[in-house]
């Protein structure tokens, strides 16, 4: 192949364009026979016909023989003219039935819109000449007395008329051709896909030259062998080969050899099959080849060159669009469509009973660290292939580094395969592997919100890991139903937060001996259409979809409000607000806190932040930095649900912690259970050594209170003292004997 940047000599770089409906049904338009000249001889005198035949019958003018069509009257002549669309010259007798029959016929010809045909008038009566304006108005080429028309004169006159006809026809053809190029390119350029663009190009070429045979367009790349070029569109006998490589076409297939040659040599040729090649940067060459039986002339070539120059831009544009699409929607490493593609495809689906399944390959990271990238992505590809080979061939996407995604129909083969994926074997770089999976899914019930659907499937996926159900979740109708409920609940929570339906209740934190109020814990409350939703239900959901920080913010704002009112009455108290584990890991937590404290005017020393023991065993680096930051701001830190975490107690000493809140489960049976007692007394001992406060949650009975107080515990929270309440209730309670002193 020649370097691709050498263009075949194509004239001009005007941008012209073609119509899709090349003939209403895509059939090329009829094309006149350009091998012979058709001459209509009109005369009522048989002898004149005989003479004309003798003179012109065997003549060859301007390189073509003549076909004489004879008519004996203007009526016959009309019929012939209507029958033959491509008559070049009419040799017309003036005087026939009437003295001016010829002139009348000439007028009829022009009025019928036949403007190209040339007319030579002959008369047997010298002296009877038509008016000059007749000659002009009816566009008469020549006027001769029959006696004047010697053999040479007739031939000269006919040659002049034919030349004139040829020029008119040439101008007309090129006008029509250019018009066609302009209108068709504007339609072609709206196509965004290579396949439909090139199909349009193929039809346009056929239409432009009026040909109707087999044809195809192949795409070649500089670095690949010509035989590796792919057939991107085809018509006639070549239509079935769309998508194949040239080498796959049978050797006897029409145009195969010619096309290979054209790819190698960047050819433009109208001798033999029509071959036209177009190069686009950086390295692609498109070759159109069409078979035809009609001879193509210089005009065809010229028009084709103009067309080729124009579609080069189109090929380039379509190529760019395809590359952009690929970049946006394709994961090159795994050679799979990516998350954006999944979102787009889901967005295009109608809502129905299908669902999105996200499949986390748990074995991925081990494979990556043990065998490297190629093996790990190879494994992903194999798994994708194993799902894609099923009937219905579901598309498989790479949703995240180690997560594949697909849309599944209930009861389909893909659903069965998903449930059984751990028993499948995968052949990766010559090794047989198995893999372990976690699967989360969400229904396509909510049309249009693809991101939300995927978010839900992803949330389900994280549950699949932590729910203690094992790594493989056999999803079922219930799970789809649950997911649907979750979607509804999340949407409702979102609007509840906006509409102020989520509020904060305050539960007093008291001195265990006196019952005096020291502070309040802020607890979120959601009243959904009159029915309270348990925080145990909506808080985890809020964490999954990033709404928990909003709830924390609400807690701090309402606390600031309560404390300000208490302060105005001369009562000091602190607020204790729960911060979700995922929010403790946020890189932007500290700026957020500073901003929030500034806005609420809440003194940091009045704010205690409760984090669960669980949150400390997640991403420790960021969490620890944030804890220190919060501490430096002046906030106090409490470890919530203490005793339920898996972590060793040793970290407590290293962290900037102020309070341990002993979980309710040890309080409930403190009077009867030795191990609960042991844990509580150990915790108290540890706290004393580390100079931390300890608080017991969930004290409901006087017995629990007195046992704990006897063990040296000083602070408490529980229904025995007060339940969570509204700001107004909290204010009133604080001022009451139960709150202020006991
Ligand atoms: P938690 O932080 O351990 O909150 C204490 C829970 O125990 C509260 O339940 C409270 O109403 C309840 N409780 C207090 N005293 C007693 C008692 O004597 N007996 C019994 N049976 N229960 C008592 P609630 O409000 O249902 O909250 C449950 C959990 O939801 C909280 O546990 C906390 O983990 C979470 N949560 C609540 N509000 C928020 C919030 O604003 N932000 C965050 N991140 N989590 C919150
Ligand atoms: Ca708490
Ligand atoms: Ca707690």
Question: Residue share in helices?
Answer: 40-55%
Residues in β-strands, percent: 15-25%
How many DSSP E strands? 28
What ligand molecules are bound, each kind once?
A: ligand C2E, calcium ion
Strand order of the largest sheet: 20-21-23-24-25-26-27-28
Q: Over the alpha carbons, how many angstroms does the gyration radius reach?
A: 45 Å
The stretches of 5 or more residues where confidence is low (pLDDT under 50) are 1-30, 467-472
Main sheet attributes: strand count, strand direction, barrel closure: 8 strands, mixed, barrel
Shape summary? elongated
Number of helices: 25
Specify the structural class: alpha/beta
User: Which whole number gives the mean pLDDT?
Assistant: 85
Distance between the termini: 98 Å
Describe this structure in words.
By secondary structure, the protein is an alpha/beta fold. 44% of the residues lie in helices and 20% in strands. It contains 25 helices and 28 strands. The strands form 6 sheets. It has an 8-stranded mixed β-barrel with strand order 20-21-23-24-25-26-27-28, surrounded by 6 helices. A 6-stranded mixed beta sheet has the order 2-3-1-4-5-6, sandwiched between helices. A 5-stranded antiparallel beta sheet has the order 8-7-11-10-9, sandwiched between helices. Helix 6 packs antiparallel against helix 8 and helix 10 runs antiparallel to helix 11 (373-388). The longest helix is centred in the N-terminal third of the chain and has 38 residues, at 151-188. The N and C termini lie far apart (98 Å). It binds ligand C2E and calcium ion (2 copies). One calcium ion binds at residues 521, 578, 610, 640.
């Amino acid at each position: 192949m020649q370097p691709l940047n050498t263009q075949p000599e194509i004239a001009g770089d005007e941008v012209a364009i073609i119509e899709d409906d090349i003939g209403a049904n895509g059939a090329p338009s009829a094309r006149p026979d350009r091998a012979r000249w058709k001459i209509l001889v009109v005369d009522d005198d048989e002898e004149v016909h005989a003479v004309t035949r003798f003179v012109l019958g065997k003549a060859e003018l301007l390189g073509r023989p003549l076909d004489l069509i004879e008519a004996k009257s203007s009526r016959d002549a009309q019929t012939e003219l209507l029958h033959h669309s491509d008559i070049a010259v009419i040799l017309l007798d003036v005087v026939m039935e009437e003295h001016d029959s010829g002139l009348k016929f000439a007028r009829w010809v022009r009025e019928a819109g036949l403007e190209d045909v040339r007319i030579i008038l002959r008369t047997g009566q010298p002296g009877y000449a038509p008016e000059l304006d007749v000659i002009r108005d009816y566009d008469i080429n020549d006027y001769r007395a029959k006696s004047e028309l010697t053999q040479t004169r007739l031939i000269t006159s006919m040659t002049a008329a034919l030349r004139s006809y040829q020029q008119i026809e040439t101008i007309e053809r090129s006008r029509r051709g250019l018009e066609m190029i302009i209108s068709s390119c504007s339609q072609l350029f709206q196509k965004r896909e290579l396949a439909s663009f090139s199909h349009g190009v193929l039809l346009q070429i056929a239409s432009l030259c009026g040909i109707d045979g087999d044809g195809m367009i192949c795409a070649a790349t500089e670095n690949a062998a010509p035989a590796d070029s792919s057939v991107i569109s085809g018509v006639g006998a070549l239509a079935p080969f769309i998508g194949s490589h040239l080498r796959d076409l049978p050797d006897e297939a029409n145009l195969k050899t010619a096309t290979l040659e054209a790819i190698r040599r960047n050819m433009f040729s109208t001798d033999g099959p029509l071959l036209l090649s177009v190069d686009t940067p950086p390295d692609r060459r498109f070759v159109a080849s069409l078979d035809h039986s009609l001879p193509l002339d210089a005009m065809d070539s010229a028009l084709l060159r103009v067309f080729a120059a124009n579609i080069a831009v189109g090929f380039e544009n379509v190529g760019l669009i395809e590359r952009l699409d690929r970049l946006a929607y394709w994961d090159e490493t795994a050679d799979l469509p990516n998350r954006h593609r999944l979102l787009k495809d889901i967005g295009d689906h109608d809502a129905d009973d299908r669902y999105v399944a996200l499949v986390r390959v748990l074995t991925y990271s081990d494979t990556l660290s043990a065998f490297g990238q190629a093996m790990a992505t190879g494994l992903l590809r194999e798994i994708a292939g194993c799902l894609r080979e099923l009937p219905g061939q579901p598309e498989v996407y790479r949703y995240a580094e180690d997560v594949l995604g697909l849309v599944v129909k209930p009861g389909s083969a893909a659903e069965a395969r998903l449930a059984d994926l751990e028993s499948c074997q995968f052949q990766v770089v010559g090794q047989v592997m198995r893999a372990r999976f976690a699967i989360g899914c969400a229904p396509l019930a909510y049309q249009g919100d693809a991101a939300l659907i995927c978010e839900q499937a992803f949330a389900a996926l994280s549950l699949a890991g932590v729910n203690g159900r094992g790594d493989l979740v056999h999803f079922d109708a219930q799970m789809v139903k649950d997911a649907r409920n979750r979607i509804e609940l999340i949407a409702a929570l979102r609007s509840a937060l906006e509409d102020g339906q989520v509020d904060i209740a305050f539960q007093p934190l008291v001195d265990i001996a006196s019952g005096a109020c020291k502070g309040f814990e802020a607890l979120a409350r959601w009243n959904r259409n009159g029915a309270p939703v348990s925080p145990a239900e909506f808080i985890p959901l809020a964490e999954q979809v990033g709404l928990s920080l909003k709830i924390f913010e609400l807690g701090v704002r309402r606390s600031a409000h309560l404390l300000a009112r208490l302060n105005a009455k001369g009562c000091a108290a602190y607020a204790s607000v729960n911060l979700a584990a995922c929010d403790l890991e946020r890189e932007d937590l500290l700026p957020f806190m500073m901003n929030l404290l500034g806005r609420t005017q809440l003194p940091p020393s009045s704010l205690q932040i409760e984090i669960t023991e669980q949150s400390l065993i997640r991403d420790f680096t960021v969490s620890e930095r944030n804890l220190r930051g919060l501490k430096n701001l002046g906030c106090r830190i409490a470890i919530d649900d203490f005793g339920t975490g898996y972590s060793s107690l040793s970290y407590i000493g290293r962290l900037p912690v102020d309070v341990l809140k002993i979980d309710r489960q040890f309080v409930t049976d403190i009077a009867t259970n030795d191990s609960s007692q042991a844990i509580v007394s150990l915790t108290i001992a540890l706290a004393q050594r580390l100079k931390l406060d300890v608080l017991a949650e969930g004290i409901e009975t006087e017995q629990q209170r007195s046992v704990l107080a006897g063990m040296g515990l000083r602070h408490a929270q529980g229904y025995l003292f007060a339940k969570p309440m509204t700001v107004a209730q909290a204010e009133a309670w604080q001022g009451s004997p139960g709150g202020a002193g006991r």
